[in-house]
Design goal:
heterotetramer; B: about 375 residues; alpha+beta; Cytochrome-c3 Hydrogenase, chain B; three-stranded antiparallel beta sheet; 15 helices; C: about 170 residues; 2 domains; 6 helices; about 0% strand
């Protein structure tokens, strides 16, 4: 059967036959890099389009419908507009850091793609600390926001950066703890192990209460970490105009914008991998016939389906809820989410030791 | 006593909210002094759209100046016109036909709903929820359509003139209003479900922007802003004009004194307006829509003051006449101006995110403040 | 020179240059950012050594924790974008001597150490192994108490910020 | 309290106050009284605090330019007793000065600022008498009858 895994293996075999191993590796690097960047571009276009359409249908309007069929090419037009716009650098700003900040944002988002298993045997780097790597790299993203806010020489930006820093650093804790709950159940940080462990059922279903609690905390924390409404205080437009990217324009703004959307994709992909089985089809215990039918749906489709479902949930939040206030936001984390997820971790450990999960 | 104007400490941050800022619904500039995220002082700077309407009116005749007043509080232009027309009618002692009175009240209440709808959407949008804005516009659009049929305009209507109303009702008026009432009753529950009951929304609004009853009176607040603090100040009840004394409706009072009370007052007022419209829509008396007036109006020498209840509070129209065809001096006591003066008092000690909630519940319309 | 060597020298150069910039720049915020890059460079070397866990911990603790704390304390205490005053000559000399002493000591240790080659496979730095080491009581164990001590560091950082914050003016 | 009772009570408070009468239909039959500018502040305090009067709601502050003099007009009402009076005070046109009442009714702060820039009335002891609506460097007092501005025409 044709699968993405087969294709990569045959390409790898052919390259190793044709070239010396070093050159083959180099060519593979180039191919993977190109694919990552094009995935980036496609994700940006698709997610922005999706956001617009989702919001439009929630708000009883049509959304973009002029450029291309059903407005599908609107984001292309916007990208071209952003590319052609002048990128202004405000006077009095720290030019070096101002220009560096969006680059850091996009690089950290790109690095996060590495351990994600897109399909069966289709992964860039299955390193043995997969999940830890994700939380490590995502903590770099906050630096780019702090940098952007500080170097813009703008009060709105600075306030936005302070808010966002406090927010991301605090919500990283409960995001990490809810990830750990699953890691404890699996016994490994490796992405492939986590996916493999869900062959008989997704953790959301077979992990009992701790997995459910962890899933809810993870979704909340992920929304907060990606600065999405109702936690979009860093760019709360009615208070701080645009928060940390007030002064950015043109392509540098587009990079922040792109990084935000790719980060949404990544946290949702992680969520799908941990709780919804990643590329693993929907299996029910020992029901061989049912499981076999499910296996016929390509694994990449399962992965993207789950991820986009979570993305849709996060978009749904955005277009439904009002924004929290900064002190309420931090109270939510430190008074509720963090104690709950700490207790939940203990619960998950107890369940893992006693073997109570399915 | 007045609060002391505190000297700015080192490390305080001064932020301009407006005039070009997403949270100001118009060109209002607020200079906010912040300590971290906590507000120390809010200083409104006005005048970006000041057109000196009072001066303009001094050179316009009593028929003409009504059209300028539509541009003050453009969201309740009917009620502005109504206040001015009442003042002129008081001077000339014109007795209106019943039909004109009923039409005026109907239009006023429709305008009040339209204005509160827009406020509701914008309020939620200020707090970061975009969807309610579009939902509110769905119903508001129906009202503007009704207005367009009868008045020929959608925003600045200029329909109420001294002596009655400009033209008779459109034949479709009753049918469309009834359809609107039905639609509104259906959709208003959606509002409460989406916004009023939302826990984030409530925590953003409760105990925010406290304005005690004494302060509300002292700052001259009127309308829903004061009624959220338990001040009964509804001009329609206290000094009834037209046929308001014959209608059954409640003056909504909330005693929470916070943003959420002001929010509730406005939401409940929409229901009251609907019930007023329901009482009148099938009982519009036949007859003239205008009293017979002279072509050129001349007010006798003297001073005339009328008060009407707009969607934002009490609008006072004060005309000083020397007996000529134009007013000698005209003063509009606009509700927004007084309500805005309470903002500094309310905002002190709150967070910058609260300021948005407070401004939202004051329901500021900037041309009304600047005039 | 193999690809391995090239990567190592690149990472080492990156770490050293950004580290040097961190101490020489006159803007305190930039200094923090260069420190960040230097720490990322070290994390890169750990990755190169295939010590992924240590590398990730390096990033989580130093980049995500310490540097963010430093940046926050800069935000709270310093004037925006102000240049630091030029360092005095005595500070330069004492700093230089301290750095030279540290470098000399490290170099001495490295040169004195007798590196012996081994053909044994390395211990797999998997989570299970690390967990066993942390809580184990046999040889190479007792890592946990050592890690607990690092909480002291966090406490110290928080204390620094509390002291650095201005006391609110009493009315 | 009826108008007659109000008049008696007000005369008790301030014997020099004169009532404006006869020119019907004046302002819905509200009591109109004239006082001297110097007497305004203490009188205002009494209006606010005297039992039975309790004028706690200042709802309109206006100035009128009569070409020979200016008249300040204060509309006061009581939210307790629901009676309303109109207090007027004639000011010298060349040097209009009157005490502020913004410590008695806070709403006066904004209203007085507006009248100050529109008519040039100097409210003594006002905490912050900067221009509120007009630009800081605006010259002249637009609502006075002799104001001419050929650039920004507001007269038809």
């Amino acid at each position: 059967m044709w699968s993405l895994g087969n294709i990569t293996q045959s390409v790898d075999a052919w390259l190793n036959e044709a070239f010396s191993p070093a050159i083959a590796l180099l060519i593979e690097f180039v191919i993977v890099g190109t694919m990552a960047i094009s995935l980036f571009a496609i994700l940006g276009l698709v997610l922005v389009m999706m956001e617009r359409k989702v919001s439009a249908y929630m708000q009883i309007r049509l959304g973009p419908n002029r450029v291309g069929p059903k407005g599908m090419f609107q984001t292309f037009a916007d990208t071209i507009k952003l590319l052609l716009k002048e990128g202004l650098t405000p006077t009095g700003s720290d030019k070096f850091l101002f220009n560096l900040a969006p680059v850091i944002a996009i690089i950290s988002a790109m690095l996060l793609l590495a351990p994600i298993a897109f399909a069966k045997d289709f992964q860039m780097w299955d390193l043995n600390i997969g999940v830890l790597y994700v939380s490590a790299i995502s903590s770099v993203a906050v630096i780019s926001i702090l940098m952007a806010g500080w170097s813009s020489n703008n009060k709105y930006s600075l306030l936005g950066a302070m808010r966002s820093g406090a927010q991301i650093v605090s919500y990283e804790l409960s995001a990490g703890l809810s990830i750990l709950a699953i890691v404890v159940l699996v016994g490994s940080l490796k992405m492939s192990d986590i996916v493999a462990s869900q062959e008989t059922g997704w953790w959301l279903f077979k992990g009992h209460i701790p997995a459910l609690i962890a899933f809810v905390t993870f979704i909340i924390a992920a929304t907060a970490e990606t600065n999405r409404a109702p936690f979009d205080l860093a760019e709360a437009e009615s208070e701080l105009t645009a928060g940390f990217h007030t002064e950015y324009s043109g392509m540098r703004f587009a990079l922040f914008f792109l990084a935000e959307y790719v980060n949404i994709f990544i946290v949702c992909a992680i969520g799908a991998t941990l709780f919804l089985g990643g590329w693993m089809p929907f299996h029910i215990g020992q029901l061989e016939a049912f499981n076999h039918v499910m296996d016929f749906i390509p694994s990449s489709l399962w992965f993207f389906g789950k991820t986009f479902f979570l993305i849709f949930v996060i978009m749904w939040f955005r277009w439904t809820f009002p924004r929290l206030r900064i002190d309420q936001l931090l109270n939510l984390e430190w008074k509720y989410l963090l104690p709950i997820s700490m207790f939940n971790l203990l619960l998950a450990t107890a369940i893992a030791i006693m073997g109570w999960h399915f | 006593m007045l609060e002391e104007v505190s000297v700015i400490d080192q490390g305080d941050m001064i932020i301009n909210i407006g005039p070009q800022h997403p949270s100001t619904h118009g060109v209002l500039q607020l200079v906010v002094t912040l300590n971290g995220e906590t507000i120390k002082k809010v200083e409104p700077h006005l005048g970006y759209i000041h057109r000196s309407i009072e001066k303009m009116c001094e050179s316009l005749s009593y028929r003409q100046f009504i059209y300028v007043t539509s541009r003050m509080d453009y969201l309740s232009s009917h009620i502005n016109n109504h206040g001015c027309a009442l003042c002129v009618e008081k001077g000339l002692q014109i007795e209106l036909p019943e039909r004109a009175k009923v039409i005026r009240v109907l239009m006023d209440e429709l305008t009040r709903i339209a204005s509160h709808e827009l406020w509701w959407g914008a309020m939620a949008m200020d707090l970061g929820a975009f969807t309610p804005f579009f939902l509110a516009f769905r119903e508001r659009e129906t009202i503007t359509d009704i207005m367009e049929d009868t008045c020929g305009a959608r925003l600045t209507m200029n329909y109420i003139v001294p002596g009655g109303v400009m033209a008779d009702l459109h034949p479709d008026f009753q049918r469309k209003v009834k359809a609107f009432i039905k639609l509104f009753r259906e959709k208003a529950d959606q509002y409460n479900e989406l916004v009023t009951g939302n826990i984030i929304f409530q925590s953003r609004m409760k105990n925010v922007g406290i304005l005690s009853k004494e302060d509300a009176i002292s700052y001259g607040c009127t309308g829903p802003t004061a009624r959220g603090s338990g001040v009964n100040c509804d001009i329609r009840k206290l000094y009834p004009y037209e046929i308001y004394d014959k209608l059954k409706f409640d003056e909504i009072l909330e005693t929470g004194c916070d943003s959420f009370s002001r929010y509730l007052v406005r939401v409940k007022e929409m229901y009251q307006s609907i019930s007023i419209i329901e009482q009148l829509i099938d009982n519009i008396p036949e007859g003239d829509f205008q009293a017979k007036t002279k072509a050129v109006l001349k007010l006798p020498k003297g001073e005339f003051y009328t008060r009407v209840e707009t969607a934002r509070g009490e609008l006072g129209v004060y005309i000083v006449s020397e007996g000529g065809t134009t007013p000698y001096r005209i003063k509009f006591r606009s509700p927004g101006f007084s309500n805005l003066s309470a903002l500094n008092h309310m905002a002190k000690g709150g967070k910058i995110g609260d300021l948005v909630a407070m401004m939202g519940t004051l329901d500021l319309v900037i041309p009304d403040i600047d005039r | 020179m193999t690809a391995q060597d090239i990567i190592f020298y690149l990472l080492a150069a990156f770490t050293l240059v950004t580290g040097f910039l961190a101490v020489t720049t006159t803007r305190i915020f930039r200094s923090a950012i260069f420190l960040l890059f230097s720490l990322i460079g070290i994390a890169g070397i750990y990755f190169w050594l295939e010590y992924e866990f240590i590398a990730a911990v390096q990033i989580v603790v130093y980049v995500g924790g310490i540097v963010v704390l430093i940046i926050f304390s800069i935000f709270l205490t310093q004037e925006a974008g102000a240049n630091l005053p030029d360092t005095t000559i005595t500070k330069k000399i004492t700093g230089g001597i301290a750095a030279a002493c540290g470098f000399g000591f490290t170099l001495l240790q490295v040169l004195q150490h007798n590196f012996t080659g081994t053909t044994e496979p390395g211990i797999e730095p998997s989570v299970a192994n690390i967990g066993n080491r942390m809580l184990g009581v046999n040889e190479f164990g007792y890592s946990l108490p050592f890690e607990v001590v690092s909480i002291l560091l966090l406490a110290a950082m928080v204390g620094c910020i509390v002291i650095a914050l201005k006391t609110p003016v009493q009315k | 309290m009826t108008n007659e009772e109000l008049k008696i009570k007000l005369t008790e408070l301030l014997s020099s106050a004169t009532f404006e009468e006869g020119t019907d239909p004046i302002a819905i039959g509200w009591v109109n009284l004239f006082i001297a500018p110097a007497e305004w502040k203490p009188f205002a305090q009494q209006l606010r605090s005297t039992e039975g009067l309790d004028f706690d709601f200042l709802f309109c502050v206006t100035c009128i330019d009569w070409k020979t003099h200016l008249t300040m007009v204060y509309h006061l009402t009581s939210t307790k007793h629901r009676h309303t009076i109109v207090v007027k005070s004639k000011l010298d046109r060349t040097k209009p000065e009157i005490e502020t009442v913004c410590d008695i009714w806070r709403t006066a702060e904004f209203h007085e600022r507006e009248q100050a820039e529109m008519f040039g009335v100097n409210f003594l002891n006002h905490p912050d008498l900067r221009k509120l609506i007009l630009t800081d460097d605006f010259e002249g007092f637009p609502l006075r009858k002799d104001f001419e501005d050929p650039i920004n025409m507001i007269k038809l």
